[in-house]
Amino acid sequence: GSNCFIMLTDYIDTKNENAIYKLLQHSLASEAVAGLVDLLEFDDKRLTESVVHILGTIVEHPRCRQYVLEVPRNTATIGQSNPTLFTALVNMLMSEDKNVVMNAAGTIANIAESPDGRLWILQQAVFDDALPILGVL
Asked: Against a cut of 0.85, is the pTM above it?
């Protein structure tokens, strides 16, 4: 499973605009983005690193960013106490793996580049707890 995402990551890196255009044209684009966020719950370092890299890339596009910001929590297991996307990203900032840290920080930075993204970050329940971690970056 994680090899598929490594290939997808490579595709997005080399054909960024084309990949985002194809995603936006798909009738289930918002569900696909929600599915990516769901994958952050898996305990597979390579998969998580690839997913965060993909999310960090697609949030550069306003419509994709909106899809990401509209995912409230893990959609596959609604009702369980799963972390929000922001909580998952902040937790990744404390990883021993520098690639995971850099991808999570980059995704947060890309989200924060827009006014709606900054507002979304400020509205997160764990924002006050995340400040010290974000301040160290």
From this structure: no
